[in-house]
Structure formats: structure tokens, C-alpha cells
Amino acid sequence: MKDKLYGVLAPVKKYGLFVAIGILALLPMVVSKTYILGLLCRVLMYATLAGSLNVINGYSGQMCIGHAGFFCIGSYVEAILATRMGISFWVLLPLAGAAAALMGLFVALPTLKMRGVYLAIITLGFSEIIRLLALNWTDVTGGAMGIKNIPVPRLGGIEFSNARTYYYIFLAIAVLFLFITRRVIRSRLGRAWMSIREDQLAARSLGVNTPAYKAVNFMYGAFWAGIIGAAYAPYARFIDSTIYTLDEGFNILSMVIVGGMGTLTGPLAGSVVINVLTELLRPIGQWRMVAYGVLIIVMMWFRPQGLIGASDSVLAGRDIKMKKSGEGAK
Amino acid sequence: MSGILRANGVCKYFGGLKAVENVDMEIARGDIFGIIGPNGAGKTTFFNICTGIYGPTKGSVYLEEEEITGLSPDKVAAKGMARTFQNIQLFKYLTVRDNVKIGFHLHTKTRLLDAILHTKAYQQDEKMIQEASEAILERVGLIQYRDSMAGMLPYGIQRKVEIARALAIEPKLLLLDEPAAGMNPQETMELAEFIKSLNAEGHTIALIEHDMKFVMNTCNRILVLNFGKKICEGTPEVVKADQGVHEAYFGKGIIAGEAVK
Amino acid sequence: MEYLLNQLVNGICQGAIYAMMAIGYSVVVGVVGMVTFTHGEVIMIGAFAAYYAFEMAGNHILLGIIFSFSAAWLVGVCVYKICYEQFFNAPRNISMLCTIGFSMVVKNLAQIVFGPNQKPMLNIVDNKIYKLGVVQISTVQIVVVITVVVSATVLSFFFNKTRWGIRLRAVSQDKTAAYMVGVNVKRTAMVGNCVGCALAGVSGMLLSIYYQTLQATMGGSLGMKAFSSSVLGGLTDIRFSALGGLCLGVIETLGITVSSASFRDIFAFIFLILMLLIRPEGFASKKGARP
After folding, report:
1. Helix, strand, or coil here: B61?
2. Do C291 and B15 touch (CB under 8 A)?
3. Does some domain include residue A54?
4. Collapsed DSSP state (helix, strand, coil) of residue C98
5. Which of A25, A41, A113, C286 has the most CB within a 10 Å radius?
6. Which residue of B has its CA nearest to C288?
7. A286 within some domain
8. CA nearest B75 in A: which residue?
9. Domain count of chain C?
10. Contacts of C269 in chain A (CB under 8 A)
């Protein structure tokens, strides 16, 4: 929220943004390796997924650590309704988001008036319950065998059946997410969320209905996670419960923590860093997760707000030094 | 009665501890009302009950004759009571201007869809907030600090920012919890003048304070608490002369004679 | 009826272990003042420490207790130095996230070192069945309950009758006040953390002896159960946390008799939700009512 800074940088940001989107849109035509395209798809997908978690953890200061649960709900809603009832992908996208948002409300409701750690634990438990349901409710979810042959999205003759085409779906969702979220953050809602993050009691005493705003915030984050889940299912063509583990939730959390909390670009950076690291560290298998854990610890020690995180918030964790009398006017 | 805030028989017990015991209070429109008492007398607890942070164990609170007992702090704020805190709960990492902007939350109505679609409601709100926050900062004399990080400013300035933020609510009643705490005599005097000028503009103000001189100079009516009980209510002269007040502060004996000057 | 009574016994035994986990958790949160996500992994480490003790030196329960206690204590020192020491004055979220990172490291290292599969831990205790009227109790169950009760008694004595106990209680009530009367707050917090972790370690051993199996991934759900049990005690009250653990054990055991074993963890979750809906602040002893 540095108004002056935004004032100066606005033109640069505006054009820079379009240039960046343009480059991203042209990328698949230049890149030939499917492997790289797959990586790009993953980066874009996780940019939105981490972004949705950042809205919860970074902007309102709540603690959700079971984000995989909403991702899972989105995927399964899409997969089940698409395979069983042939509903169009484009209808299912927002539907899955709404389903995830509704679940988000149920999850957050008991803990809205309590300390943050209770929400964190509930999201953990919720994530596991969803996974267990996906694993055991065989009639609906296919159980351990998952759901296969998920229909490919079609739009005006184009079949989105490979990474090269699906890239645009992930890109479109990411751009839409950023655009919408930016507008929300810079409005009364975003200000209310940030006031809750900075000092909940003060916010409440200024008239902010903190439980209601926390709930809306949580649902917003869950909504977009559900959308990404729904987008992911036809991309993978096959889903089962093994994708949506607690580790996956920690994977997304790492992106937010490393990349940055409380800013729009932080989760993007986190997605790039973690996904590239995943590729580079693939040979070492499980040591990757150890590396992420170490990364989180290192971040908490030296830069709690993340690489591109909100340095002007409680997330940065440092004490403010008061200037002496007379100083401070700008 | 043209009372703004009325408390009837308010009690607050924390288990066996009687923090507030049967306190009645009436603040009239246009008052600068002081609440004083030795440490631990229950002043802040009483404030917290009025603003909805606690519900009272017994008793009721009325704002402009409308009962607000037990309402949550945000609803109390919506009814028109704003407050500041003893240990300055500013949004330390946000700028002064952003702190004040949040104060306008109650007077704006942008919803999720408005924000996404940049509807008229959104645009009007943003324009209003921008102009109104400038106005308040001008009025309060903080315009030169508007882009400073709130937590880095001197204590006296921070206190003013907190008051400015509370004023954004356009409150019927402004409650200040130990506004002069941690201030040097110069800052305290400036604060007293500031409060009086706010009052002259029509704001009703209630404050908790320890600084006797400050209270005697600024307030037109005072309530004295000790051990959670009311021991005196009235004008500064009445309170100065009250025997119970003397005993509360200075105990019994010769030295008590050298009381408040 | 007889079946139900036996399941009740099983539930109480399971509950005793959960109680011990919960006691450990509430000691950590109470003394350090920060919430942790590492408890499940500490339980797991304790189990593995006992496993290797038994492998190397035979099935002596006391040996297992010593090893699991010590290994968990050491892990506690690491957790303290990495996740708590720096962050006493920082926002609580930071230490919380740090413990999440720590648990990720331990959990995945354990899977790498010990392998991800279940390991059998057979017949540590010479298991006989005793009949008490219609109810059957096994030696293992008796050992478990005795260990828990003895540990709780020792802990109670430690807290109430020793110098260290007073320090721990002081630090858990008000760190600044404790500091001002000369208590070394940092060292005391570390000791408190280690005591809680050590209890977790021993409960890990008990769990793996009881179920005759252990696995590097067992920590996650166990940590959640420790937390869920402690909610009854407001996360910090030892007695009510223990009670919570007992209730959870009984509810869980009775629950899976009417559904299936794979729904075990769901009952912990339901228990947690119920607690949060009915009495979210638990029954903690109020640490002084300063508003």
C-alpha cells in the first residue's frame, strides 16, 4: 500500500504487465519440448493455487495449512460430474469453485472467533478427511482406483488435450485470478482483511465485523483452489486420492512462504521457485520435501514475509523502532 | 435526559474478582467526561464493557437511550461509539493515511461484486475515502505524516493518529483510554488543547486518565472509581473536595491534606 | 454387552496413551507459550528409538522407556533452538510455521532413513490375557496404563514439589514476571519443551508396543489427536488435556466398532469439531484474570 510508489511506477507496471502477458501467451509457440510446456503449465497452475492460499494466509493473516482439501474437492466435483453426467467443463469450473467455497465456510465457521492455531488444525484435519473420503467412498469417487477418462474440454472446435493447448487455460485462469484479486484487495474488502491481519481487536473496534470478513476471505481462497482443482482434473485425465495429501498442502504452503505473503507477485515467485526446484531436485526424490522444510525454516529465520512478501505488515515479524520526537514527517 | 452514554449498575466479575461493582454513570452531550482512579480500579474494564469487548456480569449500558449491553465491538462502533486504546493499537506497519482510511469502513458499502466490477458504489466509496481522510488529517494536523509508517512516529503523534482514525467513524461519543500515557508535559498540554478543540466542534468525549492535572484542566465532569466501585461523580470542584477521593488516592492522615492542587 | 465392555477397556487403554500425548502437548504449549506442529513427529521418533533399542538390546520395557525418553528429549532441544528461541517476541504465526517446516524435515528424513513402510514391533511384552469377570485385559494393556499413570504421577510431583516445577509453572503463567524474579526463562522454556517432548516420545513407544507396529508416517494424525485432546484443557491445562485424551480414545474405539478401522482418524476430527462447537476455550485453569 505505498500510494506514492504506485503513482510513479503505475505506467511501467501497466505496460510491463501487458508485455509480460503477451510474452506468456506466445511462449507455447516458441517452446517445442512438451516437458518444458508441462513445467510451465504447472507453474501457472500453482501460481493461482498458491495465490489463493496467499489471500487467506497473507492478506487476512489467517492460517490455512490444508489447502489440498479444496484442491481435491474441485478436482473430484469436476471429474465426477463430467464423467457421470457429461456436464461441460466450462460450467463445472465455477461450480467446483462454489462447492469448495461452501466447504470452506463449513470448515472455518467453528473457529472464526478463536485463535489462529485452531483454524490451522481444522484445515489439517479437514484435508485428511477429504482425502480419506476420496479414498474410501468408492461408489462416488472410485475409491482407490480413482476416476479415469475425464473428458477433455472443448471450445469452438479446439480440443484442449495436451500441454500446449491446456497452457492457455491455466494462463487465462491465472490472469483472471490476479486481475480480480487485485481489485478486491484494493477495495474496502481488502482493507478490512488487512486490518484484521494487522490488529484484529482494533479492526473490530472500528466497526469491521471480523468473523464475517474472515469467513468471506476464507471462502474466496477456497473458491479459487476449487477452480484450479477443476481445471487440473481434465488436464491429468485421471485423478485419485494420492495426489491430494497433506504433503501437497505443504507444497503449496511452501510456495506462499518462500515466494512471499501479502503481495500479489509473491505466490507467483514462489510457484516458479518451488516448481523449478522440484524439477532440479527430482533425482533426489524425497529429499525434496526435506529441502522445502528447511526452506521454510530458513525463511522464518531471515525473511518471514517471503522473498517478495509484504514488508509493510506484521508478516515481516520485526519490531518497529520508534523515531525520536520531531522526526518522522515526510 | 440528553445523555449520550448511560451505564446502570454495571458489574463485572472474573470468577471471584469483582473488577467492576455496581457502577452508574451518565455522560451528557458535549461533555468532556473523565474517569479516574488508582491503578487497578477497573477503569479500563469498565470502558471495555461499554465498547463491547466484554459483556457485563450485571447491569446495562445505553447509547442515546438505545441499549447496547453485550453487543460486539463492531456493532457498538456502528452505533456510534469509537475508542482508542491504552497501548495505542495502531496498524503499525501501515501508513498514517491507510490507518485513517480503515476508519471509514462503516461509512462505505463496497461489496465483493462492487470491488470486482468497479461499480459506481466502489468508485464513490474510494473517492469519498480519499477526500475524507485528507480532511481529517488536515483537521488533526497530521497531513505531513500521511505517508509515514505509523509505528515509526513519536508517541504523541501516534496517539493523534489513533484519535484521527477513531474520528473517521463520525462517532457520537469518543472514548480515549489513557491518551496522555507516556507523554511529556509539552505533549500532554498539546493533547489537552486538542481535545478541547474537538469538543468545541461538538464531539462528546470520555477519557480515562491518571494525570490529575490533565483531567482537572480538561474535563467538565469526572467519575472516580476505586476497587471497581464508584466513589464520586461530579464537577472537578466537587471531586477535589470529596473526602472519599482523598482517601482513595492518599489514604487517611495528615499528608492527605496536601492533596490535589 | 460383554463386547461393549471389552471395547470400553480397549478404549480406555488407547485413551491412556492419547492422554499421555496430550499431557506432553499441553506442557509444551503451556510453558513455551507457542503452539507446535512437531508433536506428532516427536511421538514417531520416540517409537523408533524404542524400536532400535529393542532390536539391539532385547525386549526390556524400561530400556525402551529410557531410549524413547532421551531421543525425544534431544529432538525437543532441536525444536526449541530452531523454532522457539528466536521467536519469543515475534508474531505467533512465525514460530508456528517454523514448526511446520521442522515437522516436514523430520517426517521426510524419517521416511528416507527408516523407509516408508510399516515395521513390526512384536511381542515386546509377554502377552497374557487376564479375565476380570466378563472383561478381558491383556498384559500389554496393563503395562500401558501403569506406565501412563506412573508418568503422570511423577510429572505431577515434579511440577508441584520441585524447584524446576515451580520455575516451569511460573514461566507458563507470566514470562516477564518470572524473569523479574530471577528465573532463567529461556532455559526453563527449553526444559518444559523437552519434558513435554519426552512424554510424547514415551507415548510413541507405548503406541507401537500396543499396536505391534510403527511407521515413519505415523506422526501426522497423532499430532492432530494430541491437539484435539488438549482442546479440552484449553491447550495448556494438563488434567483436562489428559481427560480429553481419555475421551478421544474411548470415542474412537467405540466409533470404529460401528463403522470401520479406516475411519479412525475421522473420529478424532469429529471430536475436535464437537469440542470447538461446545466449549472452544476448554476448561483451562484461568491464569489470573487480568483483563
Report:
1. strand
2. no
3. yes
4. helix
5. A41
6. B14
7. no
8. A207
9. 1
10. 125-126, 128-129
Position A116 in a domain: yes
Within an 8 Å CB–CB cutoff, is residue C286 touching chain B?
yes
pLDDT tens digits, A246-263: 889 999 999 999 999 999
* pLDDT tens figures, A105-130: 999 998 888 888 889 988 988 998 89
> Are the C-beta atoms of A58 and C93 separated by less than 8 Å?
no
CA angle C19, C21, C25 (to 5 degrees): 110
* Assigned domain for C192 exists: yes
Nearest CA of chain C to the CA of B148: how many Å?
A: 22
- Percent of chain B whose pLDDT exceeds 90: 46
Three-state SS for chain A is CCHHHHHHHHHHHHHHHHHHHHHHHHHHHHCCCHHHHHHHHHHHHHHHHHHHHHHHHHHCCCCCCCCHHHHHHHHHHHHHHHHHHCCCHHHHHHHHHHHHHHHHHHHHHHHCCCCHHHHHHHHHHHHHHHHHHHHHCHHHHCHHHCECCCCCCEECCEECCCHHHHHHHHHHHHHHHHHHHHHHHCCHHHHHHHHHHHCHHHHHHCCCCHHHHHHHHHHHHHHHHHHHHHHHHHHHCCECHHHCCHHHHHHHHHHHHHHCCCCCHHHHHHHHHHHHHHHHCHHHCCHHHHHHHHHHHHHHHHCCCCCCCCCCCHHHCCCCCCCCCCCCCC
Does A296 contact C101 at a Cβ distance shorter than 8 Å? yes
Q: Do C228 and A65 touch (CB under 8 A)?
A: no
How high is the pLDDT of residue C291?
34
Residue C161 lies in a domain: yes
> With contacts defined as CB-CB under 8 Å, which chain B residues touch C289?
14-15, 17, 19
Q: Which chains touch A (3 or more CB pairs under 8 A)?
A: B, C
How many domains, in total, are found in chain A? Answer: 1
Range of the domain at C66: 2-278
Using CB atoms, pick whichever of B92, B105, B108 lies closest to residue A206. B105
pLDDT digits (tens, 9 = 90+) for B35-89: 998 887 889 999 999 999 988 999 999 998 899 998 999 999 999 999 999 888 9
Of C104, C111, C227, the CB nearest to A293: C104
Are the Cβ atoms of A322 and B154 closer than 8 angstroms?
yes
Give me the mean pLDDT over the B10-35 stretch: 90
CA nearest to B20 within chain C: C291
pLDDT value for A320: 65
**In contact, B136 and B164? CB cutoff 8 Å:** yes
Give this prediction's pTM: 0.90
Mean pLDDT of C29-56: 93
Structural domains of chain B ordered from first start: 1-80+171-261 (3.40.50.300), 90-170 (no CATH)
Q: Where residue C97 sits, what CATH number does that domain have?
A: 1.10.3470
Whether residue A214 is contained in a domain is answered as yes
In a domain, C242, yes or no: yes
Task: Say whether pLDDT at B32 is over 70.
Answer: yes
- Measured between beta carbons, the chain C residues lying within 8 angstroms of B19 are 289, 291
Q: What percent of chain B has pLDDT over 70?
A: 95
Instruction: Name the residue among A116, A125, A257 with its Cβ closest to that of C272.
Output: A125
In a mutagenesis test of the A interface, which of C104, C235, C270, C281 is the best target, namely the one with the most A β-carbons within 10 Å?
C104
**Which residues are C214's β-sheet partners?**
C119
ipTM score of the complex? 0.90
Instruction: List the domain range (segments joined by +) for residue A160.
Output: 33-243
Q: Taking 60 as the threshold, does the pLDDT of residue A327 lie above it?
A: no
Contacts of C291 in chain B (CB under 8 A): 14, 19, 44-45, 48, 54
Question: Which of A4, A204, A323 is opposite residue B73, by nearest beta carbon?
Answer: A204
Burial class (CB in 10 A: 0-12, 13-18, 19+), C235: buried
Residue C226 covered by a domain: yes
Inter-chain contact C224–A121, Cβ cutoff 8 Å?
yes
